[in-house]
């Protein structure tokens, strides 16, 4: 019952109710990641309603802010440490795409997992991704996109060309699936922020830096 109410509260964009239900669910001993997934499910419905023209952009932005507030309550304070010149993950929205809500939520999640993430912003050309990877030595590239699979493909191809050996792992998210992953030449695709963070943890923490580099 609490979980259904939580999804409904997010869809209604009722921040106070969402946070109260989150606290209640945690007090009842629900798995924190299950609770967060319910909040994400609500946000996903808001995105669908926005895409259908039933919600305004302001609604979408507010729902994303509610997600971030709930996420911090569930997972704890955000790690805001400066990643300096040695990020573990380079992240950006691909060229010809300015959507950043999904990217921003994913970066917040990854930082809460303790990762050092360099945010390149939106509309990032392939050359910039490749140059930053070269300059920083980051072992993982994450790309987000909703409308430009070709930009993901161009970037993945350039990264493979620039790094013939010890290539960074390429992870994509957004409106992607197995077919898009195969088309773009990315190594992995993820549907949710949590999936993305867990994948990066597998690549970086449970393995080691070398395991996150393709082609060694």
Which labels suit this protein?
216 residues; alpha/beta; 6-stranded mixed beta sheet; 9 helices; 6 strands; globular
What does this structure look like?
- The chain is α/β, with parallel strands linked by helices.
- The chain has helices at 2-11, 15-27, 32-51, 57-75, 101-112, 126-136, 149-162, 178-184, 193-207, and strands spanning 89-93, 117-119, 140-145, 167-174, 188-189, 213-214.
- Strands 1, 2, 3, 4, 5 and 6 form a 6-stranded mixed sheet that branches.
Largest sheet: 6 strands, mixed
Q: What percentage of amino acids are in beta strands?
A: 5-15%
Number of helices: 9
Query: Low-confidence segments, ≥5 residues, pLDDT <50?
Result: none
Ends: how far apart?
Answer: 49 Å
Percent of residues in helices comes to 55-70%
Task: Choose one word for the global shape.
Answer: globular
Radius of gyration: 18 Å
What class, by secondary structure content?
A: alpha/beta
Number of strands: 6
Element-level helix/strand string? HHHHEHEHEHEHEHE
* Mean pLDDT value: 86
